[in-house]
User: What shape does this take?
Amino acid sequence: MSTAASPGGLVIAGERSGVGKTTVTLALLAALAQKSPRVQSFKVGPDYIDPMFHQQATGRPCYNLDPILTSETYVQQCFAHRCQGADFALVEGVMGLFDGASGLSDVASTAHIARLLNLPVLLVVDCSRLSRSVLAIIHGYRTLDPRVKLAGVVLNRVGSDRHLELLTDAIAGINLSILGVLRRQTAIALPDRHLGLVPTAELPQLPDILTRLAHLGHTSFDWPALTPLLLADPTPPLSHPPYPLPLSHPPTPPPSHSPTPRIAIAQDPAFSFYYPDNLDILTALGAEIIPWSPLRDAQPPADADGLYFGGGFPEMFAAELAANQELRLTLNALIHQGLPVYAECGGLMYLATTLVDLNDNAWPMVGVLPTSVRMTGRLTLGYRHALAEQDSLLLQTGQTIWGHEFHRSEAETPSPSPLYQLKRYGATQRHATEGWGSHRIHASYLHLHWGGCPEVAQALVGACLQYRQGRA
Assistant: This one.
């Protein structure tokens, strides 16, 4: 593992999940954004929803740092490239500081990313049921891996002045700075549901929440000590985009026809899970991205050469999606006529015949996949190593990629010709088959970060270009 020269910035870590690191991160970002329009944030791991809140706070896309879905080199290059021109850089961690993908090592943990980027760590500690024992927790995190440099701690959920005095006295003996103190409070609450936080598009009260978070940020941290840690390097080394493009030459279009394929991206509250890198890669490959809404639009964008349905919460909007019958019928016809379509998780659910929601109501969907999908009480979660079982729109038999599953629905009818064989991260045997694939469809529960498999994005652009040429 190589260690990059740091372009500057700070990692926010928790001593475990649920200690308030997202609140701390958003308070810092909201306060910084009132000082500068050039605050660049990042999120460790395959999360979609936390980065939405980052973007609302800063006005800039938040980029995921995931060495399993991409690579260690990609993480370093992505961070350096996105920090160019930024005044401040901040990375929100995942789970506890040393919690890795397998539970047996710290691979893909916050500590792993901090080492890769050579960044200091600000540790958030939930002090609600602690006094002197806080010293043992902080001491353990500080000494477990000397390569991870703790810049200080944030004491969260402090109950009173006396409680703060006990905590401060306990920490005084280890010469580590207390860089923030947040009192117990319920005035700022981010609502959640079955897959985590409610996405930003469903929170009309979000501007008010961000205003209160900015005030919390301004009043709860030691800014003279924090600001130098948050500064991005004003002169980072020249960094090109981390994805290696072009990979190969796409099909040559006829001279009289535009070489730019138009890819319609479903973007609304039902479909909102997209890595910014994926959209950037499509653009870098020459595609024109056209946002649209399956909730609101009666037709897909005119002259679309391909469809991209990301994940999201179609189960929360099943009635509205079902009511848009004109669109469902149009999509069914277009896809059967050969329009390329890439669908992840929520997108797969939308392409099914029926979606059975959390209240056991069945709603008709697009109907190009011969299965119903049903919400369940079981969470399917984790990294998957996928082996392509067949040639399809984007993959060739035997090709392998890394993806991530995170859903509470399941297909009621197994695919008769599965797209993938799956293996859990750290496992030795493949445990399941999954997905639907054909010359025009790629539909899977796997979320892919194309920074780790840009050839998949290129195959999609190539398929859309061929479709465009065929229509010409």
